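Proteins fold reproducibly. Look at a concrete instance:
___
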Amino acid sequence: MKIVVLDSDTLGNLDLSLLNRFGELKIYPYTRYEETIEHCKDVDIALTNKVVFDKDILDALPDLKLISVLATGMNNIDLEYAKAKGVVVKNVSGYSTNSVVQTTFMLALALIGKLDYYQNYTKSGAWSRSPIFTNLERNFFEIAGKKWGIIGLGTIGKKVASVASAFGAEIVYYSTSKNPHSKEYKHLELEELLSSCDIVSIHAPLNENTNNLLDKKQLFMLKDGAILLNLGRGGIVNEAALAEAIDSKKLLVGLDVTAKEPIEADNPLLNIKNKENLIITPHIAWASQEARERLLAGTIKNIEDFLNANA
C-alpha cells in the first residue's frame, strides 16, 4: 500500500514511523489545497487533519481507497461524494475529551483569578515594592455557588459539568439539537441560560443549529462580568459582536477556536480595549500529548480494520 500523511505538522512530535508497517510511507509537513493532488498521486491511503477533499480532488485520485481523518470532525471531506466514489472515510472520536475539559478549566481559572494581571504585577517587581503582603486590586470569585451553563451537553460537555459540579457550581445546559436529554441537569432555553449564568461554556459542533448561535443580541444578554468560554467551533460566536461585548459589558472570554484559523490579523478580537478580559489559545485544547497519542493509535486501528475488511 502507498500511504501519505498530508499535514504532519498538526500532529507535533508523534512517531509516524509506526505507519511504515502498512507499506510505502510519504510524509508532508503541510499540504496546500493546490498541492493535494500531487501529494496524493497513486496513493491508496491518505491521512489528514484539515486538508480538503472535495469533488474535484476526489475525481483526480482514482487510486485512493481510504481517507483516515486525524481528528473527529470530517467537515473537510465531501463525505457523500467520497462514498459514491467508493472511498472509505474514517475518523477517531473520543481521544481528546480529557484534554478539552482540562483546557476549559485552564481558561476559566485564569480568567476568574485574573492570572494575567497578577503574574505581571509580580514579575514587574511591583509586589517587591509594595508596603503590604498582598494585592487586592482585581476582584476574583469562587466557582462554588455560581451557575455554570453548558451549550452542547455531549461527551465533553458532560465531563465539564462533572468537574464544575465538583467545584460546587450549579449546572444547567442548552441542547443545540433542540432535544433535551439529560435527567441529571436542568435544561434551559438559550436566552434564559445566557441571562442567568455566571459562566457559559460552549462544547458544540458547528452546524445549521449552531452557526452564529451567539450574535450581538445573545451576547448582550450575558451578565456584566460573566465568563464565556468557546471550546467548540469559532463560527458559533459572532466575533465582531463579541469584541464589542467584551469592551462594553466587561465580559471575560476564553477562546480556543476562531471562525478562521489561524486567526486573521484584522480580527476585531485582537484590537479590543479590555485585553486583560480575553484569552485566545491557538486551537490547542484537543492536543495534549496523551490525546495525540490516542489519536495516532485510533488511526492505526482504523487502517488495520480497513485492511482486514478488504483482505
In short: The CA atoms of residues 107 and 254 lie 6 Å apart. The longest strand covers residues 147-151.
